Amino acid sequence: MAAQAAQPSVLQTTYKVREAEGILDVYFYRRVGFQLARLFAKTGISPIGVTLLGGLVGITASHFYFYRDLRANIVGMLLHVCANALDNADGQLARLTGRQSREGRIIDSLVDHLIFISIYLNLALRALFAGASPAVFLLAIIAGVAHGFQGGAADYFRNAYLYFVSGGSRGDFDSSAAIRSDYQAFTWRDKPWNKLLLALYLNFTLQQEIASPALTRFREMIVQFYHGQIPSWLSQRYREAAQPTFKYWSGLMTNTRMLFLFVFLIVDRPTWFFWTEITVLNLLLIYLLNRQAAMCCSLLKMIEQPPSAVAE
Fold it and tell me: For residue 1, what are the domain limits?
């Protein structure tokens, strides 16, 4: 009984933070991922190894989306769910074994992008072979770019939350300036792999900062005012302001995107997935970025007040 009672607390240590987890993550993916992480920990597989395995499964899944056969599509969906479970398991394994690393985070992000590039390619080819215009590839590219901005903004918001609510001590909230400094410290001759990973990471982080200018400015002001030592009152205010929006940001994360994809595959309308990315999810992104800007503006006004006014 004691061991069973202790297990949930061990599981929770593999979360990034409970309130940042979606319902499907908490009740399915994190539980499955935790069991996989414990298995991989026993077998000695590294978190990056799990990431690469998940990428292989995800890319294989995307191939089954090419066929206009619901049975093949269902196989792809099941493999896609397995890939997403492995995508959860790699981070949980890293936190469970204390093997978190920037390299692992970069490779994880890169693999996620490769999976969806493969999905978009297979969906576009499916539509082309079904009689669509070659312009479907342009549609897929536009949707893919939209996907990149949506996913990047959602990831940036979640990492910012981890950073600010923990007083600047948690999260993977790197700035482009810090990454550029590390990038310039390496040379292509001596550290080509590290240089390449940091080049990709720098590009991704710049994209996030461009998509979320208000949050980027807020972070810069925090560094200027508090030198990275975020006071507890500000962490609490940030939590109270940001937490209610997680249910909306989840609409731009992987689980929601997979749900749309599965529905459109079942009704044999794969191009609707592209249009959903371009229209519905972009409108949601614009709404959330505006709400984020208002939140950051409100918090900045609190920071600029005299200390006595804040205390009151």
Answer: 1-107
